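Sample intake sheet
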Amino acid sequence: MITKIKNRKSKIKNAEKGFTLVELLSSIIVLVAVGSIIAGIITSSLRGTNKTTTIENIRQNGTYNLNQMSKNIEYAQTFNGFSNDDVNYVISCPSSAFPTPAPVTTNYNYIKITPLNSSPITYNCTSSPPVITANGVSLVDTNTVSLVACAISCIQTGATDTPIIKIGFTIGPKKANNLVENSTPPILFETSVTVRNYKK
């Protein structure tokens, strides 16, 4: 009798050492939930980093190219003019007639200058399709960003005034995949330049 009681107690102790199916399933569910939360946090963090990198690439491309273009145009040794066909260039923009002159804005596709190193540069800036080049070479790194729009315009009040050249282009993320960082809105870069050696 005592032996039977001891055997029952030992069986009960052995049964208490294991886990029930409900306990195992509960543990698995909790681990899966915690893992999902951690994976979501990591994914969100990586997407935020990628979006920041994309914005930085856009800013670097736009700022560098805008600075280079404006500097080359402003300090050009010779201003060769504006064109819409890369054949016929004009030095002056259309201007309003006297006695009431008003600024006239004219859009062009090409602007040609000769910098101090005497190697002429032709900038091509069109919006359909969006292109921005210097002597046929793209100024935008198309591996990381895409050009959304581009425009060169000239503002001249009177025939004897120096034209003001406006350069503007919009750069956005490269639309290669349906990623969150591609939802970054395009950034507009623009400036106005006056040629220092105009008609000299």
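Comment: DSSP finds two helices and nine strands in the chain. Residues 34-194 form one domain.
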